[in-house]
Specification:
elongated, 6 helices, 76% helix
Length: 131
């Protein structure tokens, strides 16, 4: 006989915490994404995809939330960028100025939402709860 514990003993409460540090690192990368021209957000989502399969419970929920946040921000960023480009062209004939201002404000709100969501996610990891 071997001295190894049974399989279910190895996957107790300690296994539920697996990936907790990585989830915290991804939230930190997201927080540092705006000053790094969003390059660290790409690194963060790669880490989240890599660690998602080996985690479970509330840590898995953090990885899922990080991936969902990344893709939703990317989609909204692309849409708002297109609106800003079209509005910039239309502002030459004074039609697009209100849309350009509205798209700029929406872009600011998007960045604030991304930052607040990242801070709340990091606090959730530190406290050991779901996002």
């Amino acid at each position: 006989m071997t001295d190894l514990p049974p399989n279910n003993a190895r996957y107790g409460s300690a296994d539920a915490e697996e990936g907790r540090a990585a989830a915290g690192v991804v939230w930190l990368l997201y927080l540092l994404a705006i000053p790094s021209a969003n390059l660290l957000a790409v690194v963060g989502v790669v880490v989240a995809y890599a660690m998602r399969g080996s985690s479970s419970g509330w840590v898995r929920a953090h990885f899922d939330d990080q991936i969902r946040l990344f893709w939703s921000v990317i989609v909204w960023f692309i849409v708002l960028t297109i609106v800003m480009i079209v509005s910039g062209v239309l502002s030459l004939i004074l039609i697009g100025i209100p849309f350009l201002i509205a798209a700029g404000i929406a872009m600011l709100v998007l960045f604030i939402w991304f930052t607040v969501k990242s801070v709340l996610g990091l606090i959730g990891v530190v406290q050991g709860r779901t996002p």
